[in-house]
Amino acid sequence: MNFIKNQSIAVLFLIFSSNVVAQTFSPSSGNDFWRKVRFGGSIGLNFGNGYFAGSIAPSAIYPINEYFSAGAGLNFSYVKDNNYRATVYGGGVLGIVTPIPQVQLSVEFEQLRVNREIEYYGITVSDDFWHPALFLGAGYNTGPVTVGVRYNVIYNEDKSIYGSAFMPFVRIYF
User: Which domain of life is it from (predicted)?
Assistant: First the structure.
């Protein structure tokens, strides 16, 4: 009787241990994708005499290989001045080329929804529209931080929400 009891315990132990082994992580299980994703973004804050501007722009990139990365991001900004108020939100996609470790080239397309109100002599004018931008950029890369400048190739001085086609940037990805 002890022999059967010991054999039963041994069989149960083998079945249980094989299930435990079956639950171990395998790199080909698809979870490897999320281990390679790098998260980052930016936060901005600016205020002064009757002026406030704040923004948050989280993003994530996936390294396709040692030279190419692709990603996406979100953007939210709020601006309030004496007679001006704007809420800007949207998203974009990003492609990064790193020909050598110190140089980062990028292309970004963003589509932003702009809701703004301007008050002129007691009359409030509202404006809601979509604003696209296509940036080509170049920066100096120092590991997780890249500092550079980008240029909006579809910039239109009369329609843009940006003050200039050129914009400096700081990218941080962990």
Answer: Bacteria
